[in-house]
UniProtKB/TrEMBL annotation:
Domain Bacterial bifunctional deaminase-reductase C-terminal: 3-184
Any single biological process term in GO: riboflavin biosynthetic process
Protein name: Dihydrofolate reductase family protein
Cited Pfam families: RibD_C (PF01872)
Domain of life: Bacteria
PANTHER family hit by this protein: 2,5-DIAMINO-6-RIBOSYLAMINO-4(3H)-PYRIMIDINONE 5'-PHOSPHATE REDUCTASE, DIHYDROFOLATE REDUCTASE FAMILY PROTEIN (AFU_ORTHOLOGUE AFUA_8G06820)
Organism of this sequence: Streptomyces telluris
SUPFAM superfamilies: Dihydrofolate reductase-like (SSF53597)
């Protein structure tokens, strides 16, 4: 069965963006060591523009589907990137986006839990939950793995990693990796049984 991985960057205090959707400050940590590690470990999460820059081809190694909320999709769309991950099957989960601006992107307005359960039953590679907090909150019960890139910033306020009701769930630590830029990548697997 396919798995759903929430692969996301956050601040030390657990925000994926500022209160006005600001995330550019987290891009300042992108150095050669960190980018090389991301390309090596998670090449399928590199966007179209990034793939060209680092010489990645169209083939996927571990992931073949990406899910994102409208707020996650919007920054690329605002600069003309209508299909940010053309090497993946792309879903934008939105009740407010009426139609897809690109034939390679499916806008889905239904229940994201049902969508993920259906995708998990299909043959294929992994499914990547790209963001955001509201979608992650809705899909929290379906997330099999968390890969959290903890950036060396404290934001104080912003969009949390998850936007959901209080309901603690236990995950098991699979690994950590730290970088010279101060980022710590932590991988967790949902505890089963």
């Amino acid at each position: 069965m396919r798995t759903l991985t929430y692969f996301i960057a956050t601040t030390i205090d657990g925000f994926i963006a500022g209160p006005g959707d600001e995330f550019g400050f987290m891009m300042s940590v992108l150095d050669d060591e960190y980018v090389s590690a991301l390309v090596e470990s998670y090449p399928d999460t590199v966007s179209a523009r990034g793939r060209e820059a680092v010489g990645l081809g169209p083939d996927n190694r571990d992931i073949d589907t990406v899910l994102m909320g409208r707020n996650t999709y919007e920054p690329g769309l605002s600069v003309g990137m209508t299909s940010p991950y053309p090497h993946l099957r792309q879903y934008v989960i939105s009740k407010s986006l009426a139609a897809s601006p690109d034939p390679a992107v499916t806008v889905f307005s239904g229940d994201p839990v049902e969508l993920v359960r259906g995708l998990k039953q299909e043959e294929g590679k992994g499914i990547w939950l790209c963001g955001g907090a509201n979608l992650a909150g809705q899909l929290r019960g379906e997330i099999d793995e968390l890969v959290v890139k903890v950036n060396p910033f404290v934001a104080g306020k912003g969009i949390p990693l998850f936007s959901a009701e209080f309901s603690p769930e236990r995950y098991d630590l699979k690994g950590t990796r730290s970088f010279g830029n101060g980022v710590v990548m932590v991988t967790y697997a949902k505890r089963t049984g």
